[in-house]
Every structure is written in structure tokens, then in C-alpha cells.
Amino acid sequence: MADIDPKTTALLLIGYQRDYFDSDGILYGVVEEQLRSSDTLANTLSLIDAYKETGMTMVRTPLVFSENYGELENPIGILKTIRDVEAFRAGTTGAETIDAISAYGDRIDEVRGKLGFNAFAHTDLEKMLRERNIDSVIIAGCVTSICINATALHAFEAGFGVTILSDCTSSRTTVEQEFFCDTVFPLFAQVRTSKEVIAEAPA
């Protein structure tokens, strides 16, 4: 994505929910170090503001489970943790999109149905992007090693150009963040900063 065309590019906002971003969120401790060190949210908001008048598609893909987590059958790893600590449960504050993102109202579309790491799985995200003739995606959010990685890989394999924003994504540790941004993502995506992308916004 040498030159960003807002008409054929979508910004995917992953995990901007209270259980991650609020200081009292159930999983805030998982990404706290990176949220603080990379200024993830402030950088994301600057990017949105730079492109909100350009017509660029912007989509948030919340992770929300039913009250009894019936969607998770014999979960392991992080999904088991999510169930055990009752994170992202429908009807709870933690499952809500953070105010800073919801403040943009319908300027940011919402695609529901995400029940795991990949924002394309079990959702209409790809259908929406195809219908809008989107050929490239810019990905922001958390967690870098899990949801960002899974979504980016799917996008790449589906034929989309992929850009991952190193300063708009958060991982569990700085070491993990650097490993994915420096070693893993360059294998199939461009890794850029929000400032670089903002610099290409139409005047």
C-alpha cells in the first residue's frame, strides 16, 4: 500500500472495548504495559480524525459472548480465560465499545458476530468489504499476537493488502509487540506507524 486510497481502504478497529481499555476492565492488565508505552488509543483517534472526512470505511468488530458463554465449547488458552473471568459478556459494561470510539457514532460501522480471534470468522466483515470494493485494510487494536495476527492473516489470504499499525496495536509485552511487528508481520503485511499513514491523508 504505497499510496492510500480511502475509497478502497478500510480501517479495522479490533478490541476497543472496556474490558481491555478501561483501567478497571477485566483484561486491562493483559495489555496495560503496551497501551501506555505506545499510546495506542491516542494514536488511533488521531488516525480516525485524519481520515473521517475522506470516505474511508471504518469498522469496529467487538467480541461479545452470550451470558453463559455457550459459544465456547471446551475452550482452551485465552478463550478459556475469557470465559473463566467472564470477560466480554453480553450486557456487561466490559463488553461495550469504549466511549472514545463510540463517540464517532455511525461514522464507524459495527460488524457483530466475532466469537474468537479472527474478525472475519462468523461475521459479515468480508461481505461488507467486498460490496464496498475494498482491496486493502489497515488494522489497529489488540491483542497484537492474537486477534490482530489472526485477522491480518485472514485478510492477506483473502487477497486484501494488509497494513498493521505498530503504534495503534497493543500486545501483552513490549518484547512480544516488537517480535510480531519486526519479525512476523513483515512476512505478509506492511508495518507502519499512524504518523506515516496520517501523512498520506488527503488535504
Commentary on this structure:
By secondary structure, this protein is of the alpha/beta class. Helix content is 38%, strand content 16%. The protein contains 9 helices and 6 strands; from the N terminus they run E-H-H-H-E-H-H-E-H-E-H-E-H-E-H. It has helices at 18-21, 28-38, 40-51, 77-85, 99-102, 125-131, 144-157, 174-184, 194-198, and strands at 9-14, 57-60, 109-110, 136-142, 161-170, 190-192. A 6-stranded parallel sheet has the order 3-2-1-4-5-6. The longest helix has 14 residues, at 144-157. The mean pLDDT is 96.
Question: Any key phrases for this structure?
Answer:
single chain; Rossmann fold; alpha/beta; 203 residues; six-stranded parallel beta sheet
**What is the CATH third-level topology name?**
Rossmann fold
Please, what is the average pLDDT? 96
User: Mind describing the biggest β-sheet?
Assistant: 6 strands, parallel
Helical fraction equals: 25-40%
Q: How many helical stretches? A: 9
Q: CA-to-CA gap between the ends?
A: 19 Å
Catalogue the unreliable spans: none
Number of strands: 6
Q: What's the CATH class label? A: Alpha Beta
Spatial sequence of strands, sheet with the most strands = 3-2-1-4-5-6
Query: What is the beta-strand fraction?
Result: 15-25%
Structural class: alpha/beta
CATH superfamily, by name, is Isochorismatase-like
Shape: globular
Instruction: Provide the gyration radius in Å.
Output: 16 Å
H/E element order: EHHHEHHEHEHEHEH
- Which CATH architecture is right? 3-Layer(aba) Sandwich
What's the number of domains?
1
